[in-house]
Design goal:
This protein is an alpha+beta fold. The chain is 12% helix and 18% strand. The strands form 4 sheets. A 4-stranded antiparallel beta sheet has the order 1-4-13-7. The protein has a 4-stranded mixed beta sheet with strand order 11-10-8-12. The radius of gyration is 17 Å and the shape is globular.
Length: 265
Amino acid sequence: TNPSTTAPRPAMIDIPAGTFDMGDVMGDNEYDDEKPVHRVSLSAFQLAATKLTFEEYDRFCDATKRDKPDDSGWGRGRRPVINVSWYDAVDYCNWLSEQHGYKPAYARKGDEVSCDWRANGYRLPTEAEWEYAAREGGRKVRFGNGKDVADPAEINFDGRADYKKIYSLAGEYRRQTVPAGSLNSPNDLGLHDMSGNVWEWCWDWKASYPSAAQTNPHGPDSGVNRVLRGGSWYSLPQDVRAADRYYYTPGIRYNYLGFRLARTL
């Protein structure tokens, strides 16, 4: 068979529309960029149940004759894909959209990328969509598994006792990824690993939060760094909180950066 036409459909979860308070709603006071807490209203959308896996991304590489990303010696298959840039994620989204007969969300000319938010193709979540989903539709909860305490048995992060917080338990530091969705049960929306394992690229350029209420925010029109969310195997407890914000230039690749698919409904 032609590898370009055998991409299975990812398991996508319907995320209902709603309004929530975005930012440091728990009052953890870890980082200033989580403030001010502000109201955000979102339309319904879809988000993948797990982070994108090597199995899925390698199929794309085979079909498009791209070099496969390095797995850091940890294995491929159901582990989340790593060593992928924001641009790699955008290219994958458009390719998968075409496989499934959807309208691609992105137009890319070199490093210039625009998004058609009405397109029904795959895309990256916005930062607001990501946090809303991680918090089970905007509930006041600290971690992406629906809990307020990070347990290394349930979240893949640096659980060494030296770094324990009042809202975390000490435990294993695995120093690598684990297969997507293998550590814990999903949150109430059916989403796995919204905290830990690998950071997830979002659409938005990094910027300070506004204080005014927003509807379907997409972030600023330009910037230097794209937002990442969720924390990783390498992260300390404070950095796997649902409110935590991370960012890198969109061309960078590391073994703790991956992504998760979204779709406009």
